[in-house]
Every structure is written in C-alpha cells, then in structure tokens.
Amino acid sequence: MYDAVVIGAGPAGITAALYLVRSGLRTALVESSAPGGQILSTAEIENYPGFPKSVKGWELADLFEAHLAPYPVDRLRGEVSAVEPTSGEGGPFRIILAEGAPVEAKAVVACTGARHRKLGAPGEDTYAGMGVSYCAVCDGNFYRGRRVAVVGGGNSALEEALYLSRIVDRVSLIHRRSAFRGSMVYQEKVRAAENIDIVTDTVIDEIRGSKAGMDSLAVRNIVTGELGTIAAEGLFVYVGMDPVSAYLPAAVEKDSAGFINTDAEMRTSLPGIFAAGDIRSKHCRQVSTAVGDGATAAMSVLAYVEQTNA
Ligand code: NAP
User: Fold this and answer.
1) DSSP strand E in the chain: where?
2) Which tens digits make up the pLDDT trace of 237-296?
C-alpha cells in the first residue's frame, strides 16, 4: 500500500512526486512515456523563471528527471486504465494498470494533462502522418524548405508557427477569428516574421491531396464567405487540448469539457483524489502553474494521509 500514487510524469507529476517523497511518504509515480509530458514536444520554453535565455523542452524535462532521480520513488511504467475506490466512501484506491498487477494507495494525484485536439476537418484522418501533424518539433524537419500551414490562435499555434518558420519556406497561420488568444509577445514575433502569412477569419473546409500526401487546404473566409485554396504540404493542428481524465472514478467532478474541478488545494470532489497541472479546470496552463499545482497537491496529500492515519 502506497501513501500516494502520482499518475503522469510531466512537470506537475514530477513536482508532486518530489514533494511527496521529501515529506517521507511512500510514493509511486506512474509514467506512460518518457518523463516530461508536453514539454518534450515544445521546442523552446521562454517563460519558465530561471532560464533567461530560454530552455529547450527536452533539456528542462531532463533537469526535472535528474532532480527526482536520487529519491526513493517507485517508478511504474504503463497507462492507467482505471482508479477504483476500494470502499464506497473513497480511499484507499486501486490503480489498474493496462499491463501488470494493480497497486493500491491511500491517495492519488492525477497529473495526466491534456492531449492536442483534432480539427475535425474532412481529410484530417486521411492525411494524418502524410501531412497532418500535431507536433511541430517531431515532424517539422520533414518540411524543410517546403510550405506548411498552422491552424489555431492560441499560444501553441503561435509558438509552433514561429518554430516552423525557422525551418520551412513559408508558413500560413490560419485562425478562425481576427484576434489571437495567444500572448502578445508571440503575436508580435509572428507578425514580424517575414515568412509567416497570417490568414484570419478563416476556417479550413477540407484538407486535400493525393496518394503522395496532402498538398493544399480548401479555406473559407467566415466574414466575406469567400472561398480559397492555400498551398501546403503540411498542416500543424493546434486548436486546443482535451484532458486525459477518463480513467478517474465518475464521482470525481469534471467541467463540461472533461477537465477536473478542484479547490485551491488541488482537492477533487472525491476525498483522497487530487489533481494537478493541465488536467485541471483552470485558465492558465503553463509549466510554472503545473509545478505550483504539483507542490500544492503534495502538501494536501500529506495532510490527508496524516488525517487518515490518525
Ligand atoms: P488554446 O489556448 O485553447 O487555443 C486554441 C485555439 O484554437 C484558439 O485560438 C481557438 O480559437 C482555436 N480553435 C479551437 N477549436 C477550433 C476549431 N475547431 N477550428 C479552428 N480553430 C479552433 O490552446 P493551446 O494553444 O493549445 O494552449 C493550451 C493551453 O496551454 C493554454 O492555456 C495556453 O496558454 C497554454 N500554453 C502556453 C504556452 C506558453 O505560455 N508558452 C505555450 C503553449 C500552450 P478561438 O480563439 O476562436 O477560441
């Protein structure tokens, strides 16, 4: 029986595990892939304090991992398929892994974050892996010297359009409104980039191509109704995130999009289950806020475990 099992090894999960083990709790960390989470597919992180010249996503992930490595945290590999209360009231919990024996814990910290959402345009599945991508850092290099498009208006779309502009010939940045949602600092950089064409008030009606891969986008201006075609051999989709929260018990309250509702101490509606990072219903999703959530959740778990032991 663990005191706490942390699910997910991104910035929130690694921080929670670090604070839990340093508090003397018997802790396990379940990780489905390499530690780091979303930062592994982020080229440069410019706004995490302590790195004034920015830090590459994989470098920060390595540093987080190096910080946790000396501590006695059990590292469990694989996906969690379910977390089940062992009593009607809640904890302890049984954590069911897709492979291997289940483990039990007095408390669970859900840090599984969110995954990139699909655009939902015709052709998206046909050309997935043949032009359509959700990771510029992973796939951008295939398009060196070629033309690509990015869809979305948040920080991810702006940042990744900038990243791609340094590799490819031209980037069309397509957004459905006239105003971007992403930070002003990225908006200014995108506007200043000579090889980024900003296409606003525009939606993608279809992704087109041939057996060789995608080659263009059928687009529509939603203000004028004008139809057009944008030449692009790659489309990078950054239209928001969906939470990875389906494995949690139904008694854990979620918002309408499936993100977990917590209080300021990272407690969910089910005592003994805590949530931290991008999986939470909140406005500000940053590495810095994920780290803060992870630390807060760990301190709440400590109080909860001490109370249940008393
Ligand atoms: P986001 O902020 O939710 O932005 C999603 C964008 O996609 C919005 O501009 C939205 O348009 C657009 N969109 C949604 N559905 C669409 C559809 N079906 N068709 C066309 N466009 C669609 O998502 P994100 O950029 O992935 O960022 C997620 C979170 O991580 C945010 O909190 C973000 O601030 C954070 N983040 C931070 C950084 C950083 O600070 N360095 C980097 C990356 C991400 P509307 O604007 O019209 O709604």
Assistant:
1) 2-7, 27-31, 44-45, 55-56, 74-77, 80-87, 90-97, 103-110, 114-116, 132-133, 147-151, 170-174, 196-199, 202-210, 213-221, 227-231, 234-237, 241-243, 273-275
2) 999 999 999 999 999 999 999 999 999 999 999 999 999 999 999 999 999 999 999 999
**Inter-residue contact 260 to 247 (CB < 8 Å):** no
- pLDDT tens digit sequence for 82-132: 999 998 777 899 999 998 899 999 999 999 999 999 999 999 999 998 999
Ligand 1 probe mutation, 181, 259, 282, most atoms within 8 A of CB: 181
Edge-first strand order for the sheet with 213-221 is 202-210, 213-221, 227-231
Residue 183 CA: nearest ligand 1 atom is 40
In the residue annotation, 255 being an active-site residue is answered as no
For ligand 1, is residue 261 a contact (CB within 6 Å)?
no
Output the six-digit token pair for 263.
């209080």
This prediction has a pTM of 0.88
Residues 74, 111, 125, 135: which is the catalytic one?
135
pLDDT at 76: 96
pLDDT, tens digit, 9 for 90 and up, residues 131-177: 999 999 889 999 999 999 999 999 999 999 999 999 999 999 999 99
Is 135 an annotated catalytic residue? yes
Question: Known catalytic residue: 111?
Answer: no
**26 Cβ inside 6 Å of ligand 1:** no
Amino acid at 288: S
Which long-range CB contacts under 8 A does 94-97 form with residues at least 24 apart? 95/5, 95/7, 95/30, 97/30
Provide the phi-psi class of 131: left if phi over 0, else alpha when psi is between -120 and 50, else beta. left
- The Cα 103–Cα 173 span in angstroms is 46
Ligand 1 mean position to 243 CA, how many Å?
A: 13
Name which residue sits closest to atom 26 of ligand 1, judged by CA.
240
Ligand 1 centroid – CA 308 distance (Å):
40
